[in-house]
Amino acid sequence: MADELSEKLLRYAPQTLAGIKTGSIFNIHDIAVGMLELEIAVLNSKLNPMDIYIERVQSKKGNSLIYVYRKQQLIRDLEDPTARKLLWYKGYPFVGADADTILYGRIEHLKERLTDYDCFPHEIGLFLGFPVEDVKAFIEKDGHDCLTCGFWKVYCNKSQALETFRQYKICARIYNEAADLKIPVTRMTVNLRNVDISRGYRKAS
User: Fold this and answer.
1) pLDDT beneath 50: ranges in the chain
2) Rounded to 5 degrees, what angle do the CA atoms 2, 188, 52 make?
3) Which residue among 2, 147, 153, 201 is least enclosed by CB atoms within 10 Å?
4) Mind spelling out the 3-state secondary structure of the chain?
5) Distance CA 134, CA 179 (A)
6) What does the pLDDT look like over 49-65, one tens digit per residue?
7) Is the pTM of this model over 0.70?
8) How far apart are CA 38 and CA 159, in angstroms?
């Protein structure tokens, strides 16, 4: 059970599993929604204790969009003052009993925004761990005039972004090899509560 989704997580969300990127999003077209929901529930029961959460955020024309995120990292990212301001402009909620409730409301609003758009809403970068300065500039410039482009369009700190892209590519290679070897996603998921991921990842790379 959940082997198929497990392999897709290794291939399409490796940086999030490794703890070096807050969130990842990818499309699935070969798993029926009912089976997909069952597989998501099985994997969430195993990965939530390691702070990894999986959600189906959209289904359309036989395709399902899967969002994988580090919950505590996402809460911190979205509380950045600039991120909060950008989210406020787009109608995301700010009131709730606790941080988990607010986050739930924001993810639900993101689902609505995804339904309203033929492509991704510009603020989605905040949910994926992109630098907030780059997300802000991307919105202001409507995606034009970036310094370079890789996993996202870069407007600030080009050298730092290029180094991040390099690490992301190394991570993707390692996790694709794990997928080829049918290694379970649970074995490849870093528990940030127990590991200094910055040291561990650099050592692995």
Assistant:
1) 1, 196-205
2) 70
3) 147
4) CCHHHHHHHHHHCHHHHHCCCCEEEEEECCCCHHHHHHHHHHHHHHHHHHCEEEEEEEEECCEEEEEEEEHHHHHHHHCCHHHHHHHHHCCCCCCCCCHHHHHHHHHHHHHHHHHHCCCCCHHHHHHHCCCHHHHHHHHHCCCCCCCEECCCEECCCHHHHHHHHHHHHHHHHHHHHHHHCCCCHHHHCCCCCCCCHHHHHHHHC
5) 31
6) 999 999 999 988 778 99
7) yes
8) 42
pLDDT at 137: 97
Question: Rounded to 5 degrees, what angle do the CA atoms 60, 64, 68 make?
Answer: 140
Residue whose pair of structure tokens reads 């080009």 in the numeric block: 158
Longest CA–CA span in the chain (Å) reads 46
Residue 105 structure tokens = 């409301």
Tell which residue, 57, 53, 83, has the closest CA to residue 71: 53
* Rounded Cα–Cα distance for residues 28 and 114 (Å): 15
